[in-house]
Amino acid sequence: MILASFSYVDLPEPAKSALGLLIAFCLGTLIGAERQYRQRTAGLRTAVLVAVGASAFVDLGMRLTGPEGGTRTVAYVISGIGFLGAGVIMKEGMNVRGLNTAATLWCSAAVGAFAGSDMPLEALFVTATVLACNTALRPLVKLIDRLPIRESDTEATYEVQVTTVPGETGPAQDLLIERLEAANYPVSAIEIEERGEDAVDVIATLTASAVEPDELDAVTAELQKAPGIRHATWTSQTTGD
């Protein structure tokens, strides 16, 4: 209520800037403290700096050219924070980590942008929403993660692999693609890996991100009976967030 009833109109411009920075600092601290507590890559200081920086740049744009300048600055802040957020995203094999922290930094910039635009109440609302997303939703996330789920309902990367002899690589590749497409599983990529001098693996990556396990089992069983095929199998790796 204090922020809602408080008016910036009668304050001199330097005081408005200082107040905006103070609000961005305090609200950024709330967001950053939660990230720091959970030992995330971008913690307290990073969240505060993002909020304060966004507030300063938006305030500067408004001071120089009015609301139009503030609008342009907000657009630049949004894109600029995207590059900063990319720095905390790490890819480990098929798994991706840091997306939530990057999104939190992006929201910290929104908090700062509201503060720099003389909208403290809106900045407070965004802060409360971000904290709710990162704390109140965690029990729901854990509950969903514990629910049993069928293999066909998961989103993953699927590979079908056949092992053959070097002289049969071409026919094995053609047969693999033919059987998969007949089962309505188009191939997005084919990789050939040599295993010594007497064996070659032909690995097909499927376009589909969800499959019926029984159908792939049937395909690999059929492939394994084909002439020139020593072994056939399929694997999946769930993508992480």
Automatic annotation (TrEMBL):
MgtC-like C-terminal domain mapped to chain residues: 158-234
| Predominant place of localization | membrane
Kindly list the residue ranges recorded as spanning the membrane: 15-33, 42-62, 74-91
MgtC/SapB/SrpB/YhiD N-terminal domain ranges (all copies): 21-142
Q: Which InterPro entries match?
A: MgtC-like_C, MgtC/SapB/SrpB/YhiD_fam, MgtC_SapB_SrpB_YhiD_N
Per the record, membrane topology reads: Multi-pass membrane protein
Its localization reads: Cell inner membrane; Cell membrane
Give a single Pfam family match.
MgtC_SapB_C
Q: Which UniProt keywords apply?
A: Cell inner membrane, Cell membrane, Membrane, Transmembrane, Transmembrane helix
- Give the PANTHER family listed for this entry: PROTEIN MGTC
Its annotated function is as follows: Virulence factor required for growth in low Mg(2+) medium and for intramacrophage survival. May be involved in regulating membrane potential by activating Na(+)/K(+)-ATPase.
Q: Which family does it belong to?
A: Belongs to the MgtC/SapB family.
| Protein's name in the database | Protein MgtC
Identify the species of origin: Methylobacterium komagatae
